[in-house]
Design brief:
By secondary structure, the chain is mainly alpha-helical. The chain has helices at residues 2-20, 44-61; strands at residues 35-37, 67-69. It has a domain at 33-75. It is 49% helix and 8% strand.
Amino acid sequence: MKKTYIISICLLIMLPLWSMAQDKLPVPATPGSWVNDYAGVFSSGEVSALDQKLNEFEYRSSTQIFVITLDDNGG
């Protein structure tokens, strides 16, 4: 009886440790540009200018802003 009690206590103590284990999440690939114009809204010059401004903003503030245009959102 005492052995069963000790085993039960050990399992209750160790059970939360197993539940806290997590798989490593994959890190998303770094995009090549701050601006991704899939809908063709911007000209190449506008994309370059906006990309440069967003790059400078990220450098000054460490805040990342991405601009993505989509042709269709699937909804």
